[in-house]
Every structure is written in C-alpha cells, then in structure tokens.
Amino acid sequence: MSSSAAEPEAPDLVCQLDNVQGMVDALTAVRWKRLQDAIVELSEHGVVFIVEETGCLQAKVYLQRELFIRYEYGAQGRPRFGVSLGLLVDCLNTFSVPGRSTMIEIRYPGPDMQLLLKSVDSLDACIYAEVRTRIPDTISWDYNFEPAGSTPLSFTVKSAALKEAIDDLEWPGSSIQIMLQPVPPSVTFKGEGHGDLQIDFMYYVNTDLLTAFSCDRQVSYRYKYKFLRATTSNIPSSVIKDNRGSKVTMGRGGMLKVQHLVSVARTSVSHPHIDSAGYQQPSRIAYIEFFVKPEEDEDAVND
Q: What order of strands is seen across the sheet that includes strand 13-17?
C-alpha cells in the first residue's frame, strides 16, 4: 500500500464540556453590544476569551482545563484567533436544552480553520456547527494591572447589589466616582447629572452585602459610566440566583478590576457548596475579569 497520502494534521485542541449553558452564561457576561469580536487564546491550561473596546475596557473569560471532562491539547505555543462573539454565543445556544445539561465537543482548527462544535450526548440526533475564525487584526492592550500598594484596595459585594447600584447611577454621558475609605470602612459610588446620586456600602453595617473589605487609605477615581456598566450589565441570572459575590479591586493609577465567578457545573448534580463570600469550588467555575481605565481627574483623592 502506498503511504504517500498525507494524514490530516492533529487539531490544536479537542475538548468536551458537559454544561454548554455555563459557557453561554460566561460569554454573555462579556457581550456588552450586539456586534462584538473576541480573541480566543488556547493553551495547555485552558481557553481564554478576550474582548475589548477603545483601549479603555477589556474583559477576559477564563475556562480552565479542569472545567472540561476531556481536554486534549496538541499545539505548539498558544494559538490565537478571532471570532464573532455574538455568532459563537448564538451557535452555543442551539446546543442548550432547557432543563438539562448538554455535552458538546469543541475542536480547532477545522479543515478551513473553523471552530467546530458538535453535540455528543444524544443517541437520536447530532447538532453540528462551524464558526468561521479570522486572524486577529489587533493586539490586546496591556492593562498592566499592578497593586496600588502593600495593602490591597478591594471589596467583595453581592453581585446583585453591585449591578443594582451601577444601574441606578445612570446619567447620560456621565462619569461615576468610586471612593474607598478606611474610616469608616466604606465604598461610595457617586453619579452626577441633572442631580447627584450617591450610594454607600458600609462594611460593618451590612456584612451580608459587603462581604469583604481591604483599604488603608482614602482613594477616589472616576470611570466612564458606559464602561463601568458593561462590567455588570450582563451578569448571568445564575450568579444572581446563587447570591454570589463580585470582587472589585483598584490597582495602581486607578485601574479597576471587576471579577465574577460563573458556575459551569451540571444542572443535574446536587447543588455545590458555596461559601459565605459566594465563591464556589474552583474546579467548576469560569473566571471573568473586567479591566476599566479611569478618567483623568485632577480632583481625585489618592493619598
């Protein structure tokens, strides 16, 4: 027999996920407008989706390899490709069956560099989808998040409360001031428009709402409202239902990091343990991080 026929190259990645809805929730959380592209980075550690806008807002979704029931990585280095985030979410939704978890296989690349999706847990039918990819035309900006000092400037608040506070602060074209102060330990959100609106989270008054707080000096920065709102506008209902917490950290220069945790556990299993801060065991959650650059503000208090 002739062996001249070349065998197809092994794919960079073949993985299987047993709850497609968890992936849909995680990607929807970083979809703040209808037409949006994402850069996908593959590695032996998992899959990262990067979405950004105008160099002022960046979001990342981390799907660690532990989330997958199968993860076969054969690439050299870390392949990167671009994809339409909306198209990918719409495709994943076709695999999601209400009331039960659906298992899918993800393969990259296909014969024409596509991202291939296939259902693998049904004996009656198989759903198959191909998502066109592209070579990224931009390089993700370096958010360069560094600690603001020896003591972290951070707080953890119930995700529903954070979303409600930011939604309430909407003023057309406005900025939102976020201030942390150690005495009394509190977080203040302030919006200015036709009037002023201020929302305070007092650490010792309601520890069920503000579950953690770290601050050794008063700091204050302003952020464009539309960018701040993008960090919470699409928090999945599962996060709100589980009463989970979101962590907000101010880095050097006022760079804001907002972190959410989204469950990708199968809906058919018993409810996993969630601690008092709303954190689930790390093996079954997707990590979502937003980075928001502050506005220039000569009146900011950052001693």
A: 70-73, 13-17, 104-108, 115-119, 128-131
